Predict the structure.
Amino acid sequence: MIKKSFSLIFMLFCICGFSQKLIEKNLVSDILETTRSLKIYLPEGYEEDTKKNYPLALVFDAEYLFDAYVGNSVLFAAKDKAPKQIVVGISMKNSRKKDTYFNVNNGKLTASNNAFYQFVRDEVIFYMESNYRTSPFISLIGEGTSANLISHYLKENVPFINTYICINPTFSDFIGQQFQDYNLSKFLKEDNTFYFYSNNSSSFSTKKQTKIGELQTGLSSLKLKNFNIVNDTINTSSSISAMSEAIPRAITKVFEIYSAISKEEYEKNIKDLSPIDAIAYLENKYLEIEFLFGTNLGIREKDIYAVESIIIEKENGDQLREFGKMILKLFPSSPLGDYYIGRYYESGKMYKKALKQYKIGYGKMDPSDPNSDAFYENVLRLGGM
């Protein structure tokens, strides 16, 4: 109970915190022949940094999903687990069935469903990309029949959505065949990364659990390098609890590449690499972060330390100089690059060159830095030789 209360208090805090950053927009739609209400959340710092771009998240059912998604996006960004996002909530208060349902006889979208589908694709996304600094990474988030509608965007011949988050999905009886018709192997042709998230739950009816379970089983057999299937199961007696749990669980998986290197990532992708491949992995990780999310992070120090042992211990440390050069290129004011180059020269008994690098690195440090004394020991050790 305490844990749930804390989560609720935090979410209320987040909602209060971002309320002043909301923009209400009435978007005139030629496709729907009406005006639809949008809520637009701009992350902290959007106005100050005029060059930075942000991933775009479109949240259906804004009446109850928008605040929950924004609250989670604020928390994940604050914890450096995901980039800051621009979030758009699409109001569907009086039109959900007209917007997102389907023909129960064949699972296809009705004429009004197709119109809403096109409204999101051709008008909402176009408006956001034309008026705000969005990165190429686009997410769709929906619940129930909205989740089913989101799955239909997989049929686009040229994929333009990166993330399909289907929460508590109400799929048609034909969902399995529909996925086969989408020809998901086409995603392999794209130089991009994609995610499809769906959750099952013990709170659903037996029929609904079976339908979702069968789809998840079929999807689990797919082996597409850049199309990531996230099959989730949430054990709870409440569909509302399942919804509140699904959002952070989906964000965790969708933005896993953004996070610092975890123990799991290290064990799975890095520990068996050669030094030169470990350096390339680190560089590529941050190039992909910048490409997908519009965020130039440089490289986190903790990620440098994560691969340090591979560079030092394998191949007699022969790649230490290249490792140091990479760091100096990204962080010219950091002493770390000079330190690794100095270690390279010292291991090769080129003591004058090593001493020079250690002195350069020490000269970049603030005397109050707790690591400065340890760094200076390198200078003293070689200075007396």
Observations:
- The domain at 263-383 is CATH 1.25.40.10 (Serine Threonine Protein Phosphatase 5, Tetratricopeptide repeat).
- The CA atoms of residues 197 and 230 lie 5 Å apart.
